[in-house]
Amino acid sequence: MGQMVIRNICLVLIVQVLYFLPGQAQELYVNTEAASNMPAGSMGLRMNTKFYQMEYNKMYSYRIDPEIMLGISKNLMLHLNAYASDMYQSNLKVEGGSMYAKWRFYSADEVHRHFRMAGFGKMALIDNPTALTVNSTYFTPGPNGEQVPHLSSQTYLSDEIDLDGNNSGIQAGAIATQLLHKLAVSCSASLLKRWNNLDAAAQPGQSTVASNYSISAGWLFLPFDYKNFRQTNINLYCELLGSSALDKNANYLDIAPAIQFIFNSISRFDFSYRSQIAGNMDRLSRHAFLVRFEYNFLNLFKPVK
Amino acid sequence: MLLILVSFINSRAQYKKASFQASGLTCSMCSKAIFKALKTLPFAETVQTDLNINEFTVLFRKNSNPDFDLIKTKVEEAGFSIAKFWVWVKVPNLELKPEEHISLFGKNLHLMNIRPQEVEGDMRLQVIDKGYVLKKEFKKYSTFTNMPCYQSGKMSSCCKSIMGPMAASNRIYHVTI
Fold first, then answer.
1. Tens digit of pLDDT for each residue in A82-115?
2. Can you give the pTM of this predicted structure?
3. What band does A12 get if pLDDT is binned at 50, 70 and 90?
4. Domain positions in chain A
5. Chain B interface, Cβ < 8 Å to A
6. Is residue A270 exposed (0-12), middle (13-18) or buried (19+ Cβ within 10 Å)?
7. pLDDT of residue A80
8. For A109-168, what is each residue's pLDDT tens digit?
9. CATH of domain A25-130+161-297
């Protein structure tokens, strides 16, 4: 009983703090997409770089991910991505690409609040191994005191279905975003199906279907007073990203705080740190940094009606 | 003939500016997309913004023929919508009555939700057609008239003029003060 009272007081305090925070809501989420679309007739170019701390040796691998975004119409937008990383070998290798489409099907707009829903689909074709094999050499003393080399090979499996460079597959889901005064909250849920990678079949026992979900909150921190388009925006985000395998007992939940700068109302810099806070899923990496540059070409082409 | 032409051009200059509040914006990039779209309007002299309240003002060129529907189209094409839309116009001495249909400087106007009044000089009109107000506002205004022209924005059998012939276009803007 006492615990419930304390919990309720905490909830009220949190709501009060959020309500009286200066600034406005912001929904340009860093690790997920909001139900809103980019301006129609516009094109955005992104360079995403992710640094993954590998579970097997705690060293960092990286992946570069150039991305083209197109606002085809006011309701439809497309993302095209290409991937290259050094995750499965010592040098950088082109891994494949993905296509993402989002259709906004519901909007209830007012000036400072809106509720929107969108459906999305993603398909990735990736040419990576489906298991990470690490070869190493170790030495033992020989009969005459010399060092004798031995080759060792260890294989690491991941149950995570990651369409951003690791796995071929398909994803479909829905997003709901509520912008209410100073807080923008977005939720998404989706189903993922792992396909065989272009040159490697899924490993026996590896999860092939999963449901992903996310909850994101965003807040416009600066400027307090908007005077012109040249003012730099600083936005803060906190996102929870989860996944549950549907064919075995494996799941994870990550937290991903992020900071974002918008320059000249045309370009954007994002920085996020994603880290697992719960779960039992076998994954290649549980901690990653994201660095992103984005430039937008507004009103570039006539949007489809 | 020349006199008629001069009078026509001057009359078009009476609409000074339009201001609107946009909805559905998520960031300053969205605002900039609308701003850039408005700059391409052939009748726009300058475009001003108040980014704190997502308000945009289009000042009309002299002797231009501002097309309010084109402003709305530009906003909608960019993926956003209009929550409120006002037009500033300089009028001669006019007596206005509720539900009256008038032709004012080349535009057909249907006066809704007003009290009878006399006006002169600068006047601010709020356009309340579909797409110029929030959906729930449009529903509210729909209860104020049973004339079908409010739903379509087009002149129909319900429309009658008490100020002589209406403008050639069958587009009728529904406005309030």
1. 999 999 999 999 999 999 999 999 988 877 778 9
2. 0.86
3. low
4. 25-130+161-297
5. 21-24, 26-37, 40, 49-54, 76-81, 83-84, 134-135
6. buried
7. 98
8. 877 778 999 999 999 999 999 999 988 888 988 888 888 998 889 999 999 999 999 999
9. 2.40.230.20
Test the A interface: residue of B19, B23, B27 with most A CBs within 10 Å = B27
- Interchain contact, B26 vs A39, CB within 8 Å: no
| Residues in chain A within 8 Å Cβ distance of B29 | 38-39, 262, 265-266, 268, 296, 298
- Percent of chain A, pLDDT > 70? 91
Q: Which domains does chain B have, with CATH numbers?
A: 2-176 (3.30.70.100)
Residue with tokens 């929904």: A27
* Pick from B26, B28, B77: CB nearest A40: B77
Rounded to a whole number, what is the distance in Å from the CA of B111 to chain A's nearest CA? 25
